[in-house]
Amino acid sequence: MESETITPKQFYTASNAAVIADNSLNSSFFGTKQKSTKVHVERPKSAFGLAVLIGTFALMLVGGYSVFLLQDDFEQFQLERIESTLGFPFLIIGTVLFFYQAAVFLYSSYLYLRYKPIESVSDELLPTITIIVPAYNEGKLVWNTLLSLAESDYPAHKMQILGVDDGSKDDTWYWMQEAKAKLGDRLDIFQQPKNQGKRHALYRGFQLGTGDIFVTVDSDSIVKKDTLRNLVSPFAVNDKCGAVAGNVQVLNNKKAILPKMLNVSFVMSFEFQRSAESMLGSVLCTPGALAAYKKDAVLNCLPEWINQTFMGQPSDIGEDRAMTNMILKQGKHVLFQKNAVVLTNVPENYNGLYKMFIRWSRSNVRENLAMGQFVFKNFRKESKFGARMLFLNQFFKIVMTYPFLAFLIYFVAVHPVLFLSSTFLGILVLSTFSMAFYAKRYDLAESFWAYTYSIFYTFSLFWIAPYAIITANKRGWLTRGL
């Protein structure tokens, strides 16, 4: 062989093949070890978990060594791409987008380094809040959620808690009644006459709420004692703030391997990506698990929100992203509070996970179309650069989904060995950012699940985005069964 190093072309091919794994793992190694909001996670003690991690590293190391051995084949493949009719234009477009993504990542890293959550204000400055907990088939989980909210370090006279049972078919209503019996006047509970969807349950809460700030919390989530006051403090110091996103972490990460992987993924997408977005005043999604909204901003868009349609059908998914969009459109700032932690349950099996991702991806397609209708207009007096950059970043990912998928299919069909080796090497390189970020802030042993998640996502969930695009008009929550 002429060289014992990986050429830029070979590395670009490896990155190209593995970048799909980075769709759900935004990463950086910047930051300091987290202490106040540290999640105490269990190290992989089971033989199966250890075997999975060992297998993960074996695949990546074999992939890296294979790339070294197959350098001449990579060179030939690159030449064939350049000389083909479609290959060269695709290479140019891919290169431009690669550098654009790299620039966005570097800028996001800079913003992350500058980000600091707003510290909690005094009890006197805290606004009155209405907490809305929509519940459907959650069983005793809703009891845990309601009690964790009531036990928050927040002035009781400034806190109204509303629980809305959305026509559950299990014992959810029973546990809400039990919570009411324990909490008394601190909790009001309501039962929808039939299941109408989360959006309608929230709508009822918005209509009944008396607080200056609306807080929405999923009924399978637990908040820390200081979460609520940290979440709403930005409203007390920033008149332009219209919404605040909480910091979502995984509650059931000791039970199965999927939650362990998602725990690392969530830290990347929330603490890194949303910190950067918050510096631009343009967090793109306030998560259903924990979010706060200024009452006036909600009421301004409430009729449009509850009557939202997509391709002529009522929208029954993506209520959180839709509300965020409509508040951004009002010129308000949407921020992220890293110190407002909520622990939420995530799917523990493949069926539940892919259905959740399909719902999220469909919502992403719909709301990017909606955002495109106002983001290039004069929707805000302050700088609009950040919101437009974030929109374009999402837009390019959607637009390039099918060309990239076509390239992957061609790559697999023509050079399966090159595809596998470059993909595993790319995962090793790209996911190291995620691993290092999580290790520095939380736990070294758990951080290695970043690699496993990337492999899992690349080979078993790659189809989510293409499928969600062509089925974006479909309705249904998908995961709201017993």
Order of helices and strands: HHHHEHEHEHEEHEHEHEEHEHHHHHHH
Count of helices? 18
Report Rg. Answer: 23 Å
* Bulk shape: globular
**Based on helices, strands and strand pairing, what is the structural class?**
alpha/beta
Q: What is the number of independent domains?
A: 2
CATH level-3 fold name of the largest domain: Spore Coat Polysaccharide Biosynthesis Protein SpsA, Chain A
Mean pLDDT over the residues: 89
CATH class of the largest domain: Alpha Beta
How many beta strands in the DSSP annotation?
10
- Termini Cα gap: 60 Å
Q: How many strands, what sense, and barrel or not for the largest sheet? A: 8 strands, mixed
Tell me the strand order in the biggest sheet.
3-2-1-4-7-6-10-5
- What proportion of the residues form beta strands (DSSP E)? 5-15%
From the 3D coordinates, which CATH architecture of the largest domain would you assign? Answer: Alpha-Beta Complex
Low-pLDDT stretches: 1-32, 34-44
As a percent range, the share of helical residues equals: 55-70%
